[in-house]
Amino acid sequence: MEALTELCDLISQNPLQFAEKLEWICSRCPPEGSLSVGSHRLTRLHLNAVLAVARFISKCPNHTDNDPRSQVIGFLQSIQASFRQSFWPQSFGVDSISAFYSNFLGYVSKAAELSPDFAAEVADFMGGIVICAATIVNDEAGICRVFLNAVSQNCPPVSPKAAENLISCLLEQLSVAAPTSPREAAFSISETSSSQSSPLGSHHLQPNGSASPGNEASNASASSRGTAVNGSTIGWRSSVDLLGGNLGYNDGGGGAAFLRQQIASFEGESVESLEKQEIAFRLLWHIVDKVPFGAVHLEQVMMASKKQLQSSVVFLKIRKRDWTEQGGQLKAKINTKLSVSRAAAQLQVKILVTHNSDGKSSKRLLLEALALLTDVAEACLLSVWRKLRICEELFSCLLNGVAQIAVTRGGQLLRVLFIRLKPLVLTTCAQADTWGNSQGTMLESVTKTSCEIIEFGWSKDRAPVDTFIMGLATSIRERNEYEEQDGKEKQAVPVVQLNVIRLLADLNVSVNKSEMIDLILPLFIETLEEGDASTPSLLRLQLLDAVSRMASLGFEKSYRETVVLMTRSYLNKLSTIGSAESKTMAPEATTERVETLPSGFLLIASGLTSPKLRSDYRHRLLSLCSDVGLAAESKIGRSGADCLGPLLPAVAEICSDFDPTVDVEPSLLKLFRNLWFYVSLFGLAPPIQNSQLPTKSISTTLNSVGSMSASALQAVVGPYMWNSQWSLAIQRIAQGTPPLVVSSVKWLEDELELNALYNPGSRRGNGNEKAALAQRAALSAALGGRVEVAGMNMISGVKATYLLAVAFLEIIRFSSNGGILNGSTSLTASRSAFSCVFEYLKTSNLMPAVFQCLTAIVHRAFETAVSWLEDRISETGNEAEIRESTLSAHACFLIKNMSQREEHIRDISVNLLTQLKDRFPQILWSSSCLDSLLFSVSNELPSTVVNDPGWVATVRSLYQKILREWITNALSDAPCTTQGLLQEELCKANTWQRTQPTTDVVSLLSEIRIGTGKNDCWMGIRTANIPAVMAAAAAASGANLTLTEAFNLEVLSTGIVSATVKCNHAGEIAGMRRLYCSIGGFQTGASPMGFGLGMGLQRLKSVVSSQQAQPESESFNEILITKFVRLLQQFVNLAEKGGEVDKSQFREICSQATALLLSNLGSDSKPNLDGFSQLLRLLCWCPAYISTPDSMEVGIFVWTWLVSAAPQLGSLVLAELVDAWLWTIDTKRGLFASDVRCSGPAAKLRPQLSPGEPEMLPDKDPVEGIIAHRLWLGFFIDRFEVIRHDSVAQLLLLGRMLQGTMKFPWHFSRHPAAAGTFFTIMLLGLKYCSCKSQGNLQNFKTGFQLLEDRIYRASLGWFAYEPEWYDMNNKNFSQSEAQSVSIFVNYLVNERVDGQSDSSLKRRGRESGSSLGDVKDQYHPIWGHMENYTVGREKRKELLLMLCQLEADRLEVWAQPLNSKDNLSSRSKISSDKWIEYARTAFSVDPRIALSLASKFPTVSSLQAEVTQLVHVRSLI
User: Fold this and answer.
1) What does the pLDDT look like over 880-934, one tens digit per residue?
2) Is the pTM above the cut of 0.85?
């Protein structure tokens, strides 16, 4: 059925498209006329189809095809046949039938609501069906009952005539008639007359007299109690009291007979009979809601529901022990009876609300209903069954009805309603089981109803609302009138008061009116200051919680009064700590200080939204912390952490939106300083030293001077011994704390201020040298030992504490969230916490010891930031973006900080930036960092007229040096991406029309050149020395070069030209869009977009605005996308037909398409995702389709443009390129053209080498495809260097490409011109496998190991064939081939083996869960059977290294035959044993390698003999 339901939902979304599926579902419904046949039994398939069609109708009721509607109507008309068991499948029980009815009728009812025509058609016959089901007597299976129950829940429309008949039928079942019993008549008359005579005479229970739940008899013994309203007592007796007397509870047994009669009457009702009554009332509710009917029936229905509610009052008053039935049978009957009462109450309210009319009679009915509903609610409240869920639901239903009736007359009933509601509220609050964390369902219902009525009456009639609220508020201060009673009776008063306080607080929060708070808050504050709540008690705790909740609403008057009260209360509690009085105080006093007041402070901090009040509250809380710290510091035998710690969560919350980088008032800054001073002094901050220092046993008692040193060290190294919430609060506070540079720059004055934070004669003050020594030791530990304790002798104890506070603050900034301060949502340099750390170093004339400490704090903060970044290296998705943004923000700040006037700050900034660049090389290609470097010279330096020219010259020279190193390093590792980023920066400069930055950039970059051969810009062999990478870099530059020739490229001039071209293309697109929008667009014949990336491009939504797109812009995008897609497809078609693609034209179209794609990423319009995804795919795939060097050059230029201008496209572009690469493997193109006819000279010799007809040579020169792959590989290697440290997702994409490439060692081309390209892909594979030691790829070690083995197998496979020569008449190409193999050899020689020994490999395997290092006498998936993996791996590597060295030498001689090199003749000679080992290793990998090796060295006898022996042994097997 689930599959059919999903299909139905899919059809409903597009019925016309899936018309055949809909027809198929309809064909599975029961055949027409089959339901009238008595012997026909439906199957599950029939029923499921009927439900599916009904579900479709409920979603598409006006569908043009009438067949689904006919199926539903036909089944519904014949549904009477389903009242017999033979209609249903044999396995269908009553529960399954009930579920079918409920679902089917639910769909029909929903369809009727949406379609009037369908509703009219159903109404013509539905009433008769319901009447038929209701009048069936013999319903042994209970099918009619479950049908009626389903109809009562989802009743389809009924015609007015049928409704009259149905009402008569239902009333007859409910037996609505005149009272038959005299006592019953007396009851009804007295109840009615009582309700009519006075609205006040229904509910007058004194809360103080209510009993505990355990005493059932006392619940019914309130015969003559009164309720105080505004000081007077109303002595009316409620109907509950009257009934109590009539039942014999209060008259000495006179009503015992009537009690037995009522119990017998209730017990005589079966559960089935009660269920029928409930169904009848529910059906009547639906009829009243949908069909108008006569006054006679209306009065009868009201009488029936009223009678049911009156009987429920009697029913609820019966005590549990008076029932003769017990156990589950009684509970089932109670639940059903209460369900009937709930249905009757809903019906009564529905009639009064729906058929409301003006006049006295209507008002009388409403008053009677209010009286009756509140009576039943009171009975529920006092019943022994009140804890049953159905009783709670009935109570909630009754109060909901009261609220609905209250609003029907526009506020005229409010006065009467509040008079009746107040006693009910107090009675609810008097229930002892409603006190605690969970206030109970009934109290929640009372609160909800009171809120609704108050909110309604607030604008209608304020006087009764105020009277009601004040009446509840004054009840809190009422004295207990039963002081002579025992303690159990006295506990009822606090329960009432506590619940009323909570109720009033909930009302204030819900209504949220300052006038209402002004009514209640003064009374609460007076009670707290002078009344019963002035001393520690539960009442005081509840009042404090209530006033804090009201203050959190943000009304200034109530906020200020409450905060003053709570602040004074907290300080008063501290004054009693440690005194003799504290030993005899109630436990509530400690609870108030530790829990209630801190929770209240936090609640206010969380609720305030006004910036003015938040600023005021921040100042008040920090002042309180200073006062608390000073008071706690003087306590003997107490820890200050116990006093200050509870306030920290509130301080953290109020500081959560405070920007520490703005100018801060000195007074507020000192308060922050004081807070962190005490945090450091009391050890409240989380430990900042990861490795615990070797110390003596640390005591957690802080009440003796002897433990000071150990305690101070414990605060630094841990473990943390306070509440973990306090530690989290400290971390949040750190993000919003400004640097603690306050007062004067003269340390003497600061020290005087700091001494004031100690109490006179304090054991921690400057007079105690032992305490000072403890603080210096802790400070030294916090600084990681960078400053010895002996070097701090000149630092006083108070100054050491201050420096320790600074260390805690600045280090915690970075350990909590990486060092990002509160502020704007964008992670820029201004939000880096380094902006705070360096503020301390700007102070002049610092004493050497202090300067050393502050410098050490900077380095410790930097180490913490690095640790935080490294710990999150494995994160992906949004967490990875946050990590990289944090890294860029820190790097950008350090770059800008190099322009500071202080030389030591510049030196430290350069040092830290260098370390950051070494630890995280990805920042070399961060656009924000590069932007800061290029333009900081002019942005950060003031005018030279005002400032020191020498300083400006120094800083400018420093920037030039750093920028040159930065660009050089970036170019040496990823020249493609670096040039793309430089071009983007030049585009920005062109857009901003800046002359000075452009001049500076020219002077800085004019000397940087890259090209083939040796580069003077960097030392050693770098990634850019790989010929494929350098060729790709030339393509990415946009220069029109012949890449097979030698070149020397000036980065700056080429970048300026390419940046200008990009700006021109972007300007063309922008100009066309403006023109199109200005003329209002025009009609086009644009065809809809075809299949594209679709879902893949959904990830771009994060950078596309969600605003409503303009139709003109959307149409413009469609026109251009269609045009570009068609042009790109034409290029592909031309290439596949053997035509030549014009490079300049192809480059022009691709560049324009890229400009269009990038122009829409930041626009306000929402792009056509399918169209743009198709365009992005074609830009990635077209070069692979065309597969020529020229097309690949254009592709690399476009891909570099995309990933540089929009880094968020990196994963999408790489994913498409990987798919395209794998497609070239499947189609045997370029490097993967493994057919013999594509293997160069060997193809021409094929007729002489093997029999048969010679194959035709390929139409295209295979070398073109190989060179195209070579360029492509250069781009992949470039991207690998950029993403290897920061993008696990893109690394895995490259891993997918390499896995597909190395899957089979024989699908590579054997063309001699492919040697350099082949070993370049092998080099990329090995460089990729070196990532297995990175922290973000620790879980893939086994996969890396298998990939590495595949790379070795493929590399050795190259030597299974005899070497060949290929003359391209191009010296540069031959040199590039030789250099490619030479670089591969160099990498093999210098490759770091992850654990040389077998034991280390085993250990690595255990760490990663599995290992190939300890495989012995097993079958390897690549090498087959092997004895020892580690030994075999080393032998294969030695063999490969020897073969590659020989191949590099051979290609070098071929490229430069007259240039003999010394290293060619200085190769060490190979011994005979080594030749034998090589032969055996080669033969174990592939016998062809051994044979090829023997043919290559025919004069080595030992090699020839060993190969011969191996072949002989193999032939004998």
Assistant:
1) 888 999 999 999 999 999 988 888 999 999 999 999 999 999 999 998 898 888 8
2) no
What DSSP designation does 553 have? T
Instruction: Give the Å distances, CA to CA, from 1341 to 1291, 1347, 1412.
Output: 14, 10, 10
Backbone angles phi, psi at 1369, to 5 degrees: 55, 35
Give, in order, the Cα–Cα distances in Å from 1133 to each of 667, 847, 1128, 1138, 1147: 75, 77, 9, 9, 16
Pairing of strands 232-234, 1048-1050: unpaired
Angle at the Cα of 1509 from the Cα atoms of 1503 and 1512, rounded to 5 degrees: 140
Closest CA to 377 of 328, 450, 433, 435: 450
Is the distance from CB of 1130 to CB of 1123 less than 8 angstroms? no
DSSP 447-506: HHHHHHHHHHHHHH-HHHHHHHHHHHHHGGGPPPS-TTS-HHHHTHHHHHHHHHHHHHHH
Assess whether pLDDT exceeds 50 at residue 654.
yes
User: What CA–CA distance (Å, rounded) separates 757 from 638?
Assistant: 17
Collect all residues with Cβ–Cβ distance below 8 Å to 892 and sequence separation of at least 6: 828, 829, 832, 928, 929, 932
Residues ≥6 apart with Cβ < 8 Å to 1457? none
Structure tokens belonging to residue 758: 């100690």
As a whole number of angstroms, the distance between CA 1231 and CA 342 comes to: 80
State the Cα–Cα distance between residues 342 and 395, nearest whole angstrom: 8
Q: Does residue 1182 contact residue 1262 with C-beta atoms inside 8 Å?
A: no
Q: Would you state the structure tokens that stand for residue 1248, as one six-digit string?
A: 């002489």
Instruction: Please report, rounded to a whole number, the percentage of residues in the chain having pLDDT higher than 90.
Output: 20
Q: Are β-strands 1048-1050 and 1416-1420 bridged in parallel, bridged antiparallel, or unpaired?
A: unpaired
First to last CA, the chain: 62
Residue 284 CA neighbour count, 13 Å, CB half: 33
- Angle, helices 295-317 vs 256-268, to 10°: value is 120
Using CA atoms, how far apart are residues 239 and 1476, in angstroms rounded to an integer? Answer: 113
- Identify which of 650, 638, 725, 719 has the alpha carbon closest to the alpha carbon of residue 682: 638
Give the CA dihedral 1219, 1224, 1226, 1230, nearest 10 degrees. Answer: -160
Question: Residue 667, SS3?
Answer: helix
Q: Of 208, 220, 206, 256, nearest to 384 (Cα)?
A: 220
Using CA atoms, how far residue 130 sits from 76, 165, 375, 518, in Å, is 11, 10, 34, 57
What span, in angstroms and rounded, lies between the C-alpha atoms of 413 and 401?
14
Q: 3-state SS of 1205-1253?
A: HCHHHHHHHHHHHHHHHHHHHHCCCHHHCCCHHHCCHHHHCHHHHCCCC
Residue 141's identity, in one-letter code, is A
Residues pairing with 1011 in the sheet: 1048
**Distance separating alpha carbons of residues 874 and 455, to the nearest angstrom:** 53
